[in-house]
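Feature request disguised as a bug report, sorry. It would help if multi-protein outputs had a clear separator. Right now it looks like this:
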Amino acid sequence: MSYFETLPASVRETANSALRAAFGQMQIAGVNPIKGGATTASTLRIDVGGRRYLLRIEGEPSPLRNPHQYVSMRIAAEAGIAPPIRFIDEAARVAVIDFIEQRPLNTFPGGRVALSQALGNLVRRVQSTPTFPYFIDYPEIVASLFRHVRRTGLFADGRLDPHFERLELLQKTYDAGLSRVVSSHNDFIPSNILFDGNRLWLIDWESAYRNDPFVDVSIALDSIIRSQDLEPIFCEAWLGKSLDDEALARLVTVRALTRLYYAGVLLSASAATSCTSGDVDLSAPTVAEFERMARNGHLKPGEPQTKHVLGKMFLASFMTGVEAPGFAAAV
C-alpha cells in the first residue's frame, strides 16, 4: 500500500521526490492525511526520525494564483513567524515544513486579552519583515473575485449591482488613502493561526504579498478578535499606540473591502456546488440569529448552504457595516 494513496496519482511522484530531497534515505515511520480548512492543497503529516513534518502540495493553479507565496513563506520562516522549512520546490508547488502540534486558541495563557495582544504583535512582526513581492492591488483582486460571483448566476441579474457600485466608490477612497505597503499574509483567520502551547505560528501563505497594512488588521478584527472591548488592545499591540481619527477612517474603508473579499470566497464556493441559482433574496440573519440556527442544526459547518448564508452576511457587512459573521461555520 502506498503511503500516498490519498493523493491524486498525478502528484504522488512529486510527494516522493520532495521527501527524498528533505530526508534522504531516512525511514518514513508514518503518513497521515490532514483534513479541514478551505485550501485546495493536499496536506499530509509525515513522521520521520521521531519528529513530525507537514508535506503540502498545492492544488491546480487558478487565474488568481499568487506566484510569490513561497518567497513570502521563506521570509516569514526566516523571521520565525512561519514554521521552519525543510524543502520547497516552487515549480512543483510542494513544500515540507515542521509540523506544529496545535492547541486551541482559547487555551492561550492570559485569556482573550493576552491573545489579542499576541495577535496584534504577530501582525506587527509580519509587517516588519523584508517586504514581500508585489502581486496585485487589493481592490482589484476583490473586484475580480466579485465579478466571478456575478457571472456564476448565483444571484438574479442586477441583484449585486449596488454592491459593485459601492466597490467602485470605495476603490477611489482606498487609492487616495494608500500611503505605504507592507508584507501581508492576507488571510489572517483562525484556521491559519496555530498555538503550540508556548507561542503563535502563522501558516498557509497562498495569499501573501505586499499590501495595505490595514488588510491583515481588518481580517483579524472580523475573524478572531470580534469584540469592541478587545479591538483597541489588538490595535495598540500592532501599532504601538491608539488609532487616531485618520487611521480609524482608513480601517473602515479597508474593512469593507476585506468583507467583500470573503463574501466572494464564500459565494464562489456556494456557486461551485450549485446549491442555488438566480437567488433574489439578499436578506441575511444577524450574527446572533446565525449562531442560534447553527446550534439548532439548521445550518451545519462546511455545508454549501451555510457558506451561502455566510456569504450573504458578509455582503450585508460590506454594505451597512453591521457585524461580520466570522468563519467558524464555514469550514
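(second protein starts here, but nothing in the output says so)
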Amino acid sequence: MYSSLANQKIKIVAIVLMLITSIGFAQETTPYSRFGLGYGVDNNNMASSMMGGLGASYKSVESANYINPASYAHVSLISFDAGLTGNFNRIKTETQKSNNNNLNINYLSLTVPIKKYWTSSVGLLPYSNKNYFISETKAVDTTLSAKVEYEGNGTLYNLYWGNGFKYKGFAVGFNVGYLFGKLKNYAVSYPLLDGALDNTTNATVIRSDLSAGAFVWNAGIMYTQNIKSKKDSNRIFTIDYGFSGNSGYKFSKGTSLNYGVYTLASEALGSRGVNQGIIEYFEEVLDPVAEYSDVYDTIVSNNASKVTVKTPASFNVGVSFSESIRWKVGVDFKYQPWSKYIGYENNASSKLTNSWRFAFGGEVIPNLKKYDKFFSRLKYRAGFNYTKTNININNNQINEFGIDFGVGIPLVKKVPNDEGLLQNIYTYSFNLGLQVGKRGTITDNLVQETFVRLKLGFSLNDKWFVKRKYY
C-alpha cells in the first residue's frame, strides 16, 4: 500500500519538476551584473527570504535551508521544495528610464530524513547570473560620435548534495556541489555620422565567453537552546545560534575562456534586427562559415584557453528567538572580502570590493486560540535587509536594500506516525511574499534600480516508507 502511494507521489514530483523547469532559472535583469561573475543570487528559501533572509539560524521541519546545511538535521518530513520569483524592475539614469519583467526559478531541492539524527538533501540552485544591456553615445565633434554597446547573459548553477546531523542541541552539516554554466560578455563600438551609422568605417567587437566548472562546498553548525518561562512552565522559548561559510572556490581544470577582438565593416551592422541583441547577432557574424565571414578581421583570438578564477571566503552568522510556532524573530550577517577575487576579465571590472549584508525579520501566528480558523492559522512574516555590494564604480560602492512581507499558508496532511497509523498534521506548504527595494544611485552617471519581487515557495511534504505495526 505504502510503496504504491510513494510511487504516485514520486510521479507528482516529476510532473511538477518538468513544469517549473520550463520557466527558467534566475535571470534578473540588472546592469550591475556586468561585473565579476555577475549578480549573486540569494539562496535563502522562500520562508526565510520573507523574513529578510535569516539564513544562518533558520531551521524548519518542512523545508531545507541551503545557506546553513546544519538545518537539514531538523527536517522531519520528506520535502520537495521549489521557489519562484516574478521580478518587476525599473531602471533609470539621470536622463533615461526602462522597465524589465521576468519570471524565474530560485531553487529546486529534495530533502529526505534518513535517520532521526541524519537528513540528506539534493538540489539545483543558481549561483550567479549576467543579464544586462548598456548603450552609450560619446560625441567626438559636432558631426561625429561613437556608440558603445555592452551586453551579457548566462547563469552559473550549483548542483549540490548535502547532509545534516544532530546530537542533542547541536547540529552540523555540509554541502558539496558542482558549479557549472556559461557567462558571456560582448562589447561593440562603432562610429556615427550625424547620428546615423557610418557605413564607410569599421566597428570593433570584443567577446568574452566563460565556460565554468568547479567543485564547491559550504558547511555550518547550529546550536539550539531551550529556556522555560519562569512565569509559566508550559511555555518554552528557543534560541537558535547559527554559523556557516566556506573558504572560497577555485575554478581551474573545468574552466575555459573564449576571448576575441575583431574589426567588422560597419555596413554589416545594417542587417542587424531592430530588437536583436548584440550577442545573438555577433554569434552569427563571427561564425567562420557565416555569410559575413568576409567582412571582419580577427585581431586577437584565444579559444578554449585555460583560466583560473578564485572567489573569496564567506561567512554567515545569525541568531533567532522563537516560541514554538507562535513567533520567531532573528538577525543575520554575511561578509565576503571580494577585494581578494581573482577574475578572468583582465580589466577594471574584475576589481571588486568587500561586501556585507545585514538582515532582520520574523514571523508570527497572532491567535493560536483560534487555530481552527483559516486566517488565524497563517504565519505572517516581515523583514528587511541592507547590502553593501561588491561593486564600486567611481568611488561609489553600490548599496541595496529590500523590505519583505509574506504569509505562510498551511495545509492539512495525512501522514503515518512512527507506528504506521495515519494522523492529521498542518504543514506550511505554500509561502507567498512581496519584496520592494532599491539598488544603486543616479549620481555620477550611474544607474538606479527600483524592484518589486513577487515570491512563491511551495513544499510537497510527506512521510514515506513507514511500516505499519497494526493491521
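Even a blank line would do. Unrelated, but nice: Confidence is low (pLDDT under 50) at residues 1-6.
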